[in-house]
Amino acid sequence: MEEGNKEDEPKKAVEPKQAELIPSELTKDMPPEIKKKVTQAMEFAAFSMTRGPVNPLFEKMKPEHISQFLEILDKDSERDYKDTVSNRRFLFAAFCIAILLFIFLTIFFMIINQASLLTQILTIAIALAGGFGGGYGFSKSGKKGR
Q: CA angle at residue 90 from 88 to 91, to 5 degrees?
């Protein structure tokens, strides 16, 4: 019977902490079944935060494994850097091509005296560029929030 009492003691000690996880003003108007689910979710989140993810491979690691692991991380970091540099070069080249195309089209339409056609094309091009830039910025801001 003493073992049963020992098991009950930690539960009693944990229960006040669980009640503190959710403020009473939030739970006073909740139906009991929803309150129970929210409490369970908060308990699970609190438990997983204190315990943390445990990978069985980490328990088997030895010092020589750690040095290999660090070497692999270093190589991965180098590959990420090379990939970032490559992406930046590509974007710069695409930007230069777009500028050259713009200059060429401007000169071409000015030579053939079609300024009205040029203004229509520029209006559409600016709208497309604005939509592309807005979508790109929106996707970047969404990734930062994750």
A: 65
CB-count exposure of residue 79 (10 Å: 0-12, 13-18, 19+): exposed
- For the entire predicted model, the pTM comes to 0.44
> Tokens 């699970």 — which residue?
44
Q: Which two tokens stand for residue 140?
A: 């970047």
* 21 CB-near residues (< 8 Å, 6+ apart): 39, 42, 43, 46
Domain boundaries in the chain?
1-53
pLDDT tens digit sequence for 34-90: 778 777 777 777 766 665 556 677 677 777 777 888 888 889 999 999 999 999 999
Q: Nearest Cα to 106, choosing from 118, 97, 116, 98?
A: 118
DSSP-assigned letter for residue 28: T
Residue 101 is encoded by which pair of tokens? 């195309």
Cα three-residue angle 40-46-48, rounded to 5 degrees: 100
Amino acid at position 25, single letter: E
The CA distance from 11 to 7, in Å, is 7
How many angstroms separate the CA atoms of 123 and 38, rounded?
53
Q: What is the DSSP letter of 52?
A: -
